[in-house]
Amino acid sequence: MGQGFRRMATIVHKEWLHIIRDPRTLALVIVMPVMMLMLLGYAVANDVEDLPLAVADLSRTDASRTLLEKFSASGFYLVTHVAQNEDEILQLLDAGIVKAGIYIPEDFGRNISTGGVGTVQFYIDGSNPTVAQTAQLAAETVSQATSQQILIQRLERSGAGLTISLPIDTHILYLYNPDMRRMNFIIPGLVAVILQVQTLLLTAFAIVREREQGTFEQLIVTPLRSWELILGKILPFVLVALLNVAMTVGAGALLFGVKVAGSIALLAGLSLVFLLSSLGLGVLISTISRTQMQAIYMASFIMLPSFLLAGFLIPRDNMPLLAYYAGYLLPVTYFLEIVRGIILKGAGLITLWPWIWPMVFFSVVVFILSVLLFRKQIG
C-alpha cells in the first residue's frame, strides 16, 4: 500500500510540474473563473429598468409633461431621444436604438382640459418578449397613476356629479413580434452565436492541432507564401459558416416559423463581414496558444460572455455599466442587432448603419491584426 501511494505521489508531482511550467495555461485556469464570475455575475444579476424610450410630445401641455415626468420617474424608462413625429419613433425602434416609444398627439392636452379623454400611442419593441411584457406593465401602471392624479384634480374642481372615467387612454402596440413568441427572439440570435462559435473553434483548433502534430512546420517550409497559407486555412471555414447560416435561417423558417422579413442578400453580406472578426479571433487564439487545451480556455473566454454580454438571452440596456460596455468589445454584439433587425424587423442598410459601421471596423481591425501576428510568427 505504501509503495502504491509513493508511485501515485510521483505521478502527482510530475503532473504538477507540467502545470506550473506552462504559465499560459496556469494563468488561464486561475484568472478565467474570476473574470467570468465578475462579468457574467454583473450581467445576470439585474432587473429590467431604464429601458431606452423615444418621446414625441406634440401636445406640449401640462398634462403631457406630467405624463412624461411619470414615465421618467418610474425607473422603468429612460428618455434617451426626443422625436419630432411618429415616423421618427418608428425609425428609432427599427434601428434598435430604443425599446419603446410614446406618441402624444396635439389634441391630448385639449381633450383632457375639456373633460374628455386624451389618447396616447405607445410602441413597444416586441422582439424580446420578456422585456416587452415588462414594458407593457410599466406603461399601463404609469398611465393609470397619471390618470388617477388628473381625475382627482377634476373631482376637486367640479365636486359631486362628475362622471368618473380615466382621462388617459393608452393604446399599446407590439412591433415585430405581436404574438410575443420567444422563438422569434431566440432563432435570429442563434444564427449569430452559432456562426461565431463554429468559425472561432474550427480556426483556432485546426492550426493548433497541426502545430501539436508537427505538420505546421512542414507547411511553413513549402513554397507557399504566408498569405496563401492563411487564406488556404480559413477559406473552407468561411464556406462552411455561410452554409450554416443558410441552414439555420432555413430551419428557423420551416421548423419554427421565423421567416426573414428583410433582405436575404443583405444578411448574407453582413454575415460575411462578421466572419472576418470570428476568423480573426480564431487566428489570434491559434497564434497565442501552444496546445489545444489553451485554445479551449481562450475560446471559452470569448464564447461564454457572448451568450450574455452581447444580448443573446439577457437585454443589454439594463446591464451595469461594466457589463454593458464590455459587450461592445464583442463583435457579436453588433451582429446580433443586425440579424434581429433584418429577420424580425425587415430593417435595411440605412436603418442598421449605427450597428454596421462599428462591426465592420471591429472585424477589419481584428482580422488584420491577427493575420499580421500570425505572419510574424511564421516569418
Provide an overview of this structure.
This protein has 2 domains: 51-175, 3-Layer(aba) Sandwich (abc type-2 transporter like fold), CATH 3.40.1710.10; 183-378, no CATH class. Helices cover 68% and strands 9% of the residues. The protein starts with a helix and ends with a helix. It is α/β, with parallel strands linked by helices and 379 residues long. A 5-stranded mixed sheet has the order 2-1-3-4-5, with helices on both faces. The mean pLDDT is 79. The chain contains 14 helices and 5 strands.
Question: Could you name the key traits of this structure?
Answer:
abc type-2 transporter like fold, alpha/beta, 2 domains, 379 residues, five-stranded mixed β-sheet, 14 helices
Question: Summary?
Answer:
By secondary structure, the protein is α/β, with parallel strands linked by helices. The protein has helices at 2-20, 23-44, 62-73, 86-94, 108-113, 129-158, 183-213, 216-220, 226-256, 264-288, 292-308, 321-327, 331-345, 349-378; strands spanning 51-57, 77-82, 100-104, 118-125, 168-175.
User: Beta fraction of the residues?
Assistant: 5-15%
Principal-axes shape call:
elongated
Number of helices: 14
Terminus-to-terminus distance: 54 Å
Total of domains? 2
Whole-number mean pLDDT: 79
Class inferred from helices and paired strands = alpha/beta
Radius of gyration: 27 Å
- Beta strands, count: 5
Low-confidence stretches: none
Largest sheet: 5 strands, mixed
